[in-house]
Amino acid sequence: MDHLGVSNSRENLLDLQLKGKRAIVTGGSRGLGKAIARMLAGEGVDVAIAARNVEQLENSAKELVAATKARILPFQVDTSDDDSVNQMVTQAIHSLGGIDILVNNAALAGAGKVAKIAQLDNSRLLQDINVKIGGYARMARAVAPHLVSNGWGRIISIGGLAARRTGNYSAAIRTVGVSALTKNLADELGPGGVTAIAIHPGAMRTEATTPDMERTFIASVSTKRMIDHDDIAWLVTVLASPRSSSINGETIQAGGGTVGVIDY
Fold first, then answer.
1. What's the per-residue H, E or C state across 114-171?
2. For residues 71 and 46, is the Cβ–Cβ distance under 8 A?
């Protein structure tokens, strides 16, 4: 130790200390969830990927195992349903031998894309909220007792930058809720060694991104580049690490920097 109490050993300070941890990633069969599962697995985490489509889940699990040589297990779940969530979490924890990390990522695509209040469909809005916020809350409720019992855990929830702009009622409402849920979890579970963090990604490059869409997205961010799934998956993995214990209850914007906006 030096005079500041810092170790002078040559240990690998970049080691995220995730080897042997166990994670559940909802919406893990495709897109961002699949990228997160791959990144976690690459750090030695055993991962349960959960989603609705069984065939897609099984195919993704096989692909991820081949790519990472890690333990990836598929589980069907409907996060809008209490019984489905509770059953899946019980099965996943039994199969993994425990749980350390929850990544909430499952949501309905599109969030209705409603820009005018007159166009807002109540049933669709409630469905969006039930899957996104209700689903995240159900997952956290099912997993939290196990994390607290372990004395350590991470709950990382994916929102979106729609929370910080107008123009889409459903998307804004459901993503703002991610931050509120996260802060409540952080304050409640923090004393038990469990932290909760929200991430608001910006527009991400996907298979459906056209050159025109990409130019529009790039013009709106200060880094002048598209972010992709791996950018967010890397951030999730770092925040899942035991080394990230100083970050709790926060919402992290991860879109490359929105031009002209000051967040405070």
1. CCCHHHCCHHHHHHHHHHHHHHHHHHHHHHHHHHHHHCCEEEEEECCHHHHCCCCHHH
2. yes
Q: How far apart, in whole angstroms, are the C-alpha atoms of residue 97 and residue 122?
A: 41
3-state secondary structure of 221: strand
Residue 253 · residue 164 · CB < 8 Å? yes
Burial of residue 141, with CB atoms counted within 10 A of its CB: 0-12 exposed, 13-18 middle, 19 or more buried: middle
pLDDT in tens, 190-243: 999 999 999 999 877 777 778 888 888 888 788 888 888 999 999 999 999 999
Of the ranges 11-20, 31-40, 143-152, which one carries the lowest mean pLDDT score? 11-20
Cα angle value 25/30/34 (rounded, 5°): 45
The rounded radius of gyration (Å) of the Cα atoms in the chain is 19
10-23, pLDDT tens digit by residue? 555 679 999 999 99
Distance of CA 262 to the CA centre of its chain: 24
Question: Which residue in 51, 139, 130, 61 sits closest to 101, CA to CA?
Answer: 139
Q: What pLDDT, on the 0 to 100 scale, is given for residue 226?
A: 83
- Rounded Cα gap, residues 29 and 222, in angstroms: 31
Residues 6 or more apart in contact with residue 44 via CB below 8 angstroms:
18, 19, 20, 21, 70
- Per DSSP, 242 falls in state G
Distance, in Å, from the CA atom of 77 to the CA atom of 224, rounded to the nearest integer, reads: 37
